[in-house]
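Inputs:
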Amino acid sequence: MTTLQPIAFVGAGPGDPDLLTVKALRAMQEADVVIHDRLVSAEILALVGPQTRLRNAGKEGFGPSVTQNDINAMIVDEALTGARVVRLKSGDPTVFGRLDEELDAVIDAGLDYTIMPGLTSASAAVAALGQSLTKRGRNTAVRLITGHDMQGYADHDWRALAREGEVAAIYMAKKAARFIQGRLLMHGAPPSTPVTIVENASRADQRIVSATLATLPAILAEADITGPALLMYGLAPRDAAATALPHVQEMI
Amino acid sequence: MTTLQPIAFVGAGPGDPDLLTVKALRAMQEADVVIHDRLVSAEILALVGPQTRLRNAGKEGFGPSVTQNDINAMIVDEALTGARVVRLKSGDPTVFGRLDEELDAVIDAGLDYTIMPGLTSASAAVAALGQSLTKRGRNTAVRLITGHDMQGYADHDWRALAREGEVAAIYMAKKAARFIQGRLLMHGAPPSTPVTIVENASRADQRIVSATLATLPAILAEADITGPALLMYGLAPRDAAATALPHVQEMI
């Protein structure tokens, strides 16, 4: 008889292997199989145990159009063999991680699960800026926002965000940048509002690009951002050195 | 000549030592002095290196009314001796961590710094509920909010938060719970909106208490919450077992 193990949904953090939690690292090292997303870095995947199989849920076996159903089936099928399964997701699985669809599948299959949170990219990005997501006297709330949803560009409380001192970390915002700019300007946000682009937060190839709401689309195009990028709305890098160059500043 | 070390502002995460990042753990173990807040757990402080001095910025040497200026001075003075200083903050130092005042003092003193992000309590709390902070088809944004600010109870976009499907993690909300309830109901939030209280998120003494907007103040009073607590607005525990008891449910 095979004893079934709880499936561990594990956050890999923003990319730097040292930003894994101790708990996540241990789970990866004790797993029989790690089912990971495309965005989990090679340095992190190199930390799995010697007995661990890696399965790439971003493409393996399914071609370019891997569906959520395929991923759900992969997780459930592995667990039903008795394997210790780690479902490894970039960042924090509870933040824009499409965790719920996988949990539903696992629960429908009668399997147990556990969730191990990870650092979301916004925490790493803001630390790289030398800033805080919240600050006494400036903002008593911060929003984590996505640039698009199932219908296309996501709508948000633009009027509230347009007020002075508001801060938001905008995920998956590259394509939506001009839409976001337009909505915020229309609702009265000053064109000079800082917006900092953080590409590959926490990774060796991290880049910090300073813009304002007025210059955002042009600077995004000029910077040629190819990696995952966060828009940090309302925040400029604290360190003057990071804004000394006219447009694009690289930091390690 | 003494070489001055960059001061490391380090997030200790929500309390479980296994939710430290690898980077934070290493910084603690290599530090000469760790200056920590009152909320950093004893289990985490036990992980410092054998050569490390612990200084409690919550009370040490200053009595009950330790000021931010005292803490700033402690950090700067230690660094000026050439010590490797870790300033250890509960959760993520960039989220309601009063990081900026300390950074300003460090920069004014001409010292270097680095910020090592930590898991904020909301990530641990929502994982304990088996939920996500964001969910396709439900919410494309999540807010991290404080229950009070320098002026008293903090005001927020209650009208926006009152809409169906909104999710917020409300920090330091115990005293403000009745105020928050009143504002949200006034702006049309259904009384049946779930609000889950997570006390001591991720710690051995974690408690999850289910309420609704209608029952929140009564259940908070009945549950006798004494540890740090987050209100997870718009979220109920996924697991039916966690809501089976009428009011208070303890989970380990």
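Chain B touches chain A through 58 residues (CB under 8 Å). Flag for discussion at group meeting.
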